[in-house]
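Support reply, case 0932

Customer input (verbatim):
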Amino acid sequence: MPAAQQAAAGHEHLAESYTDAPAVTDPAALRDEKFHYGLEVVLDGLALRLPR
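Our regenerated output:
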């Protein structure tokens, strides 16, 4: 993240988004959370297409 913040330093709007971003303490947990959310969205969409 520090490298991204340094690269965005010259671009005000982009730099703001990096300073407001939450710090990721466990990338594996974040990846799992996003995967489960995406899976739920897909399954919910498929459930709508099932005949009742």
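We compared this against your earlier run and they match. Two observations from our side: The mean pLDDT is 84. Residues 25-52 form one domain. Please reopen the case if you see a mismatch on your end.
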